[in-house]
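User: quick one - fold this with NAP bound?
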Amino acid sequence: MASQLPSNILIFGATGNIGKYITGAIISAEPNVGRHVSIFTSPATASSPDKQAILSSWKSRGLSVITGDLSNADDIRNAYNGIDTVISCLGRNALASQIELLKLAEESGVQWFFPSEYGTDIEYDASSKDEKPHQNKLRVREYIRENLKKVKCTYVVTGPYIDMYLTLAPVAKEAGGYDVKSKKAVVIGSGDDRVGFTTMPDVGKLVVAALRHPEVSIDKALKVQSFVTTPNDIVAEFEKQTGSKWTVEHTPIQKLREIENEKWNANDPIATLYTLKRIWAEGGTLYDKTDNEILGLRPEDMEPLSAAVERAIGGKGY
Ligand SMILES: NC(=O)c1ccc[n+]([C@@H]2O[C@H](COP(=O)([O-])OP(=O)(O)OC[C@H]3O[C@@H](n4cnc5c(N)ncnc54)[C@H](OP(=O)(O)O)[C@@H]3O)[C@@H](O)[C@H]2O)c1
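Assistant: Sure. Structure tokens for the protein plus NAP:
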């Protein structure tokens, strides 16, 4: 497989937040990546009124929809029939189920598997192994290292999605963000610390690039991103594009840590967001060199900050 391009691709979590972009990029890629693309989804999603437009548009372009239960081994074995490449875009709550999916992949004809990552580098430095949000992804990597002989894996590590970063969650204002309506930003610390971001459309582009380059992608955690910027430079871009001054509040990093601990102690799922924001603010997305270039992607191939800010202002962001 290492030198062979994907042929029959199966995607899990295709209609999710990032799955939509990854699936869209795969089926729109020119020249084609793979001969055929299928998605595996739950009957609830396949019949959901909210998902009909996207599913119909994909089906009209040749994509097949397989419905089944993610936890039913026979459903997965049937879905794997004839598949050589699997892309998992499963959400955080379904990450652990990938261990069974990988085990069944090893017993089938699947040769290449992309576990659901598309985010923070879970093996960035010595402290990464203790971060609570990383535990399920770390377990998946450990299972792969210790058990898989035949199936090869690729992790696409993108850092935070700028499109989501540009929002301000009302339930987690101190975690930082941007509110276009009130022209208000909340930044962590001074706001001058650099963060590496990927736009959601670029995540799709990067996965397609990885699929086109098995020779550099297989057995690798690819560190990729669209651009590096600072929270204050993002404010400046919003001010430029809206033609008005924004209000900026600061959350000191110590305060962020305190809220993070409170949220974990209270078993509040929002704790994950606080931890990730801290990791990003503390430099956990920065590299001397990314893997963009080995995938054939130049800086001008990636979306700039201005494009994401424009989408956010136009209400077309995340
Ligand atoms: N870098 C970032 O800023 C960032 C932000 C968000 C997410 N991520 C990462 O991106 C990956 C995908 O996350 P996402 O937010 O796109 O996922 P999501 O939209 O929450 O879920 C994707 C799909 O996973 C399946 N799924 C979710 N929960 C499930 C459950 N409990 N049981 C069975 N299936 C379930 C569903 O598939 P069906 O509907 O087809 O059944 C769902 O559509 C994750 O690894 C996440 O950590 C990164």
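One thing worth noting: The pocket of NAP is lined by residues 13, 15-19, 41-42, 45, 70, 89-94, 116-119, 158, 160-161, 164 (CB under 6 Å).
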